[in-house]
Write a structure and sequence with these properties.
The chain contains three helices and four strands. It has a two-stranded antiparallel ribbon. Strands 3-4 form a two-stranded antiparallel sheet. It is globular, with a radius of gyration of 13 Å. It starts with a strand and ends with a helix.
C-alpha cells in the first residue's frame, strides 16, 4: 500500500520518456519523496546514494541513511531495467537543486 510507481525523469521534464517503461521505478512513499526532492539518487550501478548535504533533518537522515550503497532490486530481464541514462539525468537535475 505504500509503494509508488515513480518516474525517473519527471513527467513534466521530457514528454518522450513519459511512457517508457525504463523510466519507471517502484519506490516506497518515503523514498519516492526523497528521490523527487533530491535527497538521494540511484547511480549507474543501481545503488542508492544519499546526498547528505541536502538534508537538514537529522531524523530523516537517520531514516534514509540505511539505504546508502544498497543495490535496488532489478528485473531479471535486463531489457526491463531502469535506463541508466535516465538515472544520470535525474542525478544531474538534483545536483542543480543543491
Amino acid at each position: 500500500a505504500l509503494l509508488k510507481a515513480a518516474h525517473i525523469v519527471r513527467w513534466s521534464d521530457d514528454e518522450k520518456t513519459r511512457l517508457d517503461p525504463k523510466n519507471g521505478i517502484c519506490l516506497s512513499s518515503l523514498v519516492d519523496d526523497c528521490f523527487e526532492k533530491g535527497y538521494l539518487y540511484i547511480d549507474s550501478e543501481y545503488r542508492v546514494r544519499i546526498l547528505k548535504s541536502t538534508l537538514d533533518d537529522p531524523v530523516l537522515e537517520k531514516e534514509i541513511a540505511k539505504y546508502e550503497g544498497k543495490k535496488i532490486n532489478l528485473p531479471k530481464n535486463k531489457d526491463n531495467r531502469p535506463n541508466k541514462e535516465f538515472l544520470m539525468k535525474h542525478k544531474k537535475r538534483i545536483e542543480g537543486l543543491n
